[in-house]
UniProtKB/TrEMBL annotation:
SUPFAM superfamilies, per the entry: Periplasmic binding protein-like I
Signal sequence, renumbered to the chain: 1-22
Keywords, comma-separated and alphabetical: Amino-acid transport, Signal, Transport
Domain Leucine-binding protein: 29-367
Keyword flag Transferase: no
Record's keyword annotation contains Zinc: no
Family stated for the protein in its record: Belongs to the leucine-binding protein family.
InterPro entries: BCAA_transport, Leu-bd, Peripla_BP_I
UniProt name for this protein: ABC transporter substrate-binding protein
Organism whose genome encodes this protein: Bradyrhizobium quebecense
Length: 406
């Protein structure tokens, strides 16, 4: 009888082990980072986002639920069709469980549609369109780092307090630029100020002079740049050459700016520019520790908020897989919403039903050269924006599955 009981116990133990193994599809958790690795936005995310994901995996541990964590990466060249092809292949042929970063808003909207259909987690860091938690939301999509709503809210409100009552937009002609102009315009008109015009430029245009002159001739008190990365840097450099935004009657502001943009401009040119971010590497001891670790791996380049957001999203995903006991996307998505987000850039942030990470945002100002104490010491925080103020109210987003659930 004892031998029979022992045999039965062994069988049950083997069955239990098999059950645990079955909780991770393919016996491996695969993470794919996709963004612009070689073009206009490569400094903002690019290979740095891959390194940030690698650091998160290293810090979590090489395994989750006893299974290896593998990292893949790809360059979508800022093209939605290429992004779609890569993500479909990753899911169908490679069994990728998590898509991270996304690059720009147009590619992210394409990826969001696929991950919604295929039931895969999408941690969004580089793309900013607020539509990703609005009309194009997904039960499996999580907006981790910033949004056009949050950026527009912080910058426009700061300028409106200074009496900026007329605005003209210089906008990148694709999903991100359109969303940024739309969201900023809503704050401007609600405050009783006026948008007197806008002009749209192609993504990656080298000569923006004609667009800038149109903006200058509008006589608007504020020329708002609704673009990003190399487009923002080129806009500011060329505006300076024409003397645009230098007078007391007309200012030029960047609705989205990152520390790499400040670096490209140089502090002499960038000093005094105010912009919003969810992460500044010199902010406190924890952010400095991560910043120096990252710079040691990235030839001295400081992390952007997008790269920090990739670390935050990958780490939170792995914690959620551990808590859920499976890599099943539905269970992991539920665990991601249940667990608070905690890391060097985030303290007890909750993830809302629509996938928005409710973190604080920060209004920062580019330092003067004399204020900078070390390489990449470019930013000083001048205001903290609470999550409730920073992010669009849930009821205003129009996320379909949230609307159905209410």
């Amino acid at each position: 009888m004892r031998s029979i009981a022992a045999a039965l116990t062994a069988v049950l133990c083997l069955a239990a082990v098999g059950s645990v193994r079955a909780q991770v599809s393919g016996d491996v958790v695969r993470i794919g980072v996709i963004n612009d690795m070689s073009g206009l936005y490569s400094d903002l995310g690019g290979e740095g986002s891959v390194e940030a994901a690698r650091l998160a995996i290293e810090d979590f541990g090489p395994t989750v639920l006893g299974k290896k964590v593998e990292l893949m990466s790809a360059d979508h060249q800022n093209k939605p069709d290429i992004a779609s092809g890569i993500v479909r292949r990753w899911i169908d042929e490679n069994g990728v469980d998590l898509i991270a970063d996304g690059g720009n808003s147009a590619t992210a909207l394409a990826i969001q549609a696929i991950t919604r259909e295929k039931k895969r987690i999408f941690v969004i860091s580089g793309p900013g369109s607020s539509d990703l938690t609005g009309k194009q939301c997904s039960p499996y999509g999580f907006h981790f780092t910033y949004s056009t709503y949050a950026e527009a809210s912080a910058v426009t409100k700061a300028m409106l307090k200074k009496g900026a009552d007329t605005w003209f937009f210089l906008t990148a002609d694709y999903a991100f630029g359109h969303a940024l102009e739309r969201d900023a315009s809503s704050f401007i008109t609600t405050a009783g100020s006026k948008v007197v015009g806008s002009v749209r430029h192609p993504l990656g245009a080298s000569d923006l002079s004609s667009f800038l002159l149109q903006a200058q001739n509008s006589k608007a008190k504020v020329i708002a740049l609704a673009n990003a990365g190399g487009d923002t840097v080129n806009s500011l450099k060329q505006a300076s050459e024409f003397g645009i935004g230098k007078s007391a009657d007309q200012n030029i502001v960047a609705l989205l700016m990152l520390i790499t943009d400040v670096h490209s401009l140089g502090l002499e040119a960038a000093q005094g520019i105010i912009y919003a971010t969810s992460f500044s590497w010199t902010q406190n001891e924890a952010t400095r520790t991560f910043g120096h670790r990252f710079m040691a791996r990235r030839h001295g380049q400081a992390p952007t908020m997008i790269q920090a957001g990739v670390y935050s999203g990958v780490m939170h995903y792995l914690k959620a897989v551990q808590a859920a006991g499976t890599d099943d996307a539905g269970a992991v998505a539920a665990a991601m919403r249940k667990l608070p987000v905690n890391d060097f850039m985030t303290q007890n942030a909750q993830i809302r039903e629509d996938g928005q990470v409710m973190r604080s945002m920060y209004l920062v100002q580019a330092k003067s050269p004399s204020e900078s104490r070390e390489p990449w010491d470019y930013e000083k925080v001048i205001a903290t924006i609470s999550p409730d103020e920073a992010w669009r109210p849930l009821a205003e987003g129009g996320c379909p599955f949230v609307t159905k659930a209410q």
